[in-house]
Amino acid sequence: MGRLLRRALNEKQILILSHADGKFSSLNSLVSYLSEKYSISPSTLKLNAKILKDLGLIDYGSKNAPKNVEITELGRLVLALISASENDKGCCEYRHDCGRMGCSADMNGKVDCQNEVRVLDVHQISCQKPEDISAAISVHLRELSWKLKQRLREVLKPVGNWHLGSSLSVLDILLVLLTKWFILDNAKPDDNVLILSKGHCVPALYVILAEFGFIKDDDLKTFGDLGSKLPTHAKRGVPLVAVSTGSLGQGLSVANGIALASKMDGVRKNVYVILGDGELDEGQIWEAAMTAAHYRLDNVIAIVDRNGSQLNGPTEGIKSKEPLRERWKVFGWEVFEVDGHDHGQILDALMKAERVRGAPKVIIAHTGEG
Amino acid sequence: MNFTVESYRGAFAEALLELGEKLEHLVVLDADVARSTMTKKFAERFPHRFIQVGISEQDLVGTAAGLAIAGKLPLVSAFSMFLMRAWEQIRNTVARDRLNVKFVATHAGLSDYLDGSSHQSLEDIAIMRVIPNMNVVVPADAVSTRKLLFEIFQRHGPAYMRIGRDYAPRVYEDESEIKMGKINRLEDGDDVCIAACGVMTAMALHAAKILKKRGINAAVIDVHTIKPLDRRTLINMASRTGAFVAVEEHNIFGGLGSAILEEISEEYPVRMKRVGIRDTFGTCSRNYVSLLKHYGLDIESIVRAAEEVVK
């Protein structure tokens, strides 16, 4: 994702973003500082600053009422995300991203890339701690999550709180996933695939889809009613719903099929599958887990909503799932474990999971139903 | 009896190679029976379009669904009996979304004679035809296997094709026209209509010859497409002959006979006899034809049923 963000923002924009810390009293003073230091024309810098302002990443007031150049919360988040990926990859990849042939930058962060003199600045950014991402993400998503959970309760109230706990437990996972997908990666609906193998958690998806503008708020009010566009279980045809589910245990096989097709076509596409912990009782899940590992489907990212409860009681009482990490591991999967309500952790795991090659990945997200 | 016999599976495997050349998105999936279903030939010719999932039929169906969603043309081949364990996956994941997955089930009916009742699939037509969006075809011989395989790819949506493990007497000429959803009238007659499918079609034709010698003019129709059923032809035959015999290598409950009865009894009820497995499981035998005979699936039984129904 860091790479995608870096493509979305050019180096000059990243440079401006990293200096928008309130120290410069106007855009002009920032521009002249950067222009002198990095030999970039002031007009280029101004144009890029304007783009950043339009994107809501920085603020510097207006021509008549200039303000200190400040980074916004969203800008901080974007910067943190870029730096997080830099942290993991090192600076060399950034320099190779300068896009020019013959770049001979070395691996140690020394400035010997002839094309990009701004490497050092980015390297400094990359030294931000991973905790910073978590903090930045939290600021951005905490309120949204709270609001969406309230809306979810409103949606499910008229239907007797139908599977409310299951939707609440998965909401943060879906929120981070879709935020990453559509905002941070700026990807299109077709660029990835989402499968809700636990199809009864689709109300959580609906409230996020409404927030993102894929469906209408009014449609939420009709949830589960005769003729509604939003049926109780995930149904193909609703935005982002790749396959109808409702019968447990079937989503992972479908994900494998899509992932195999992508590999055949040489298309890089992540297939995200939301699994319930209860549905791990189904044998088909483990058939599919073997298939994914056999074909090294590294474009499959499963996320287990480990809320610890299934229809008739606690999961460990019905049929034990533990040791869950080890079970996935011996099936040949790369395993990550996160607090499923910590947005920063979820995002971090998703980014790390995407980088793993040669094996399918599972994120066990520990969640609660409240 | 003087029959040319040809292998169902051989015809299927050859036709599949042809299709593989024609349809670049065709992908064949297998659950460790490719040698028996003969899709191994496809695997050898198109290794990159063959997916082996191991002995896991539920995963097999789900994976095929994913491939269809991604725009491929998945063909699932398995023993009929063991594909049925993934009935729920076929219903919920494939058929509900009308995904373009084609199922070719081999070893259907009693044709896996030596393996016995665990392997003999006598209920599959019943449980596949009740699934909305599903098409069900049962070829009579090698020629129609080839033609109907091409046909099911002409129509978007899931289809279930049922063939035997073994050989079938030839019913059609190479140039015969066989269209999905359209009954083939093989023999004309006004006294009784014998409706058959699968390997029983050849026996029905032979029974008609015997009946003719005994003064009964029997029409023979091949109802290779059990869903969608060619209702118009059935009503037409009912009104013309006033008597029906349905012949199938399947339980008399829910199969071809039931499908015909459901259709004509609403519009043009006539007397009818069913020749099929009378609600029992199969058993093993060293010989296919003896096994069929053991359950009353033979020419004599068809002749007898026709004589009774015209009385």
General description of the model:
Chain A contains 16 helices and nine strands. Chain A has helices spanning 2-8, 11-19, 27-38, 42-54, 73-89, 92-96, 119-126, 130-156, 164-184, 202-211, 217-221, 251-265, 283-294, 315-318, 324-330, 343-355; strands spanning 58-61, 66-71, 192-196, 270-276, 300-306, 309-310, 313-314, 334-339, 361-366. Chain A has a five-stranded parallel sheet, with helices on both faces. In chain A, strands 1-2 form a two-stranded antiparallel sheet. Chain A has a two-stranded antiparallel ribbon with strand order 6-7. In chain A, strand 4, helix 13 and strand 5 form a beta-alpha-beta unit. The two termini of chain A are 30 Å apart. The model of chain A is unreliable at 88-130 (pLDDT under 50). Chain B has two domains: 5-169, 3-Layer(aba) Sandwich (Rossmann fold), CATH 3.40.50; 184-310, Rossmann fold. Chain B contains 13 helices and 14 strands. Chain B has helices at 8-22, 34-37, 40-45, 57-69, 80-83, 87-95, 124-129, 142-154, 200-213, 231-241, 256-267, 288-294, 299-310; strands at 5-7, 26-30, 50-52, 73-79, 102-106, 135-137, 159-162, 167-169, 184-187, 192-196, 218-222, 225-227, 243-251, 271-277. In chain B, the strands form three sheets. Chain B has a seven-stranded mixed sheet with strand order 3-2-4-5-7-6-12, with helices on both faces. Chain B has a five-stranded mixed sheet with strand order 9-11-10-13-14, sandwiched between helices. In chain B, strand 13 (243-251), helix 11 (256-267) and strand 14 (271-277) form a beta-alpha-beta unit. The two termini of chain B are 27 Å apart. The A-B interface holds A 236, 242-247, 249-262, 264-265, 283-284, 287-288, 290-291, 294 and B 27, 48-49, 51, 53-54, 56, 58-59, 61-72, 74, 88-89, 92-93, 96-97.
Beta-strand content bin of chain B: 15-25%
CATH class categorisation of the largest domain in chain B? Alpha Beta
Query: Would you identify the CATH architecture of the largest domain in chain B?
Result: 3-Layer(aba) Sandwich
Largest interface: A-B, 30 and 28 residues
Tally of structural domains of chain B: 2
Order of strands across the widest beta sheet of chain B? Answer: 3-2-4-5-7-6-12
Q: Report the radius of gyration of chain A as a whole number of Å.
A: 23 Å
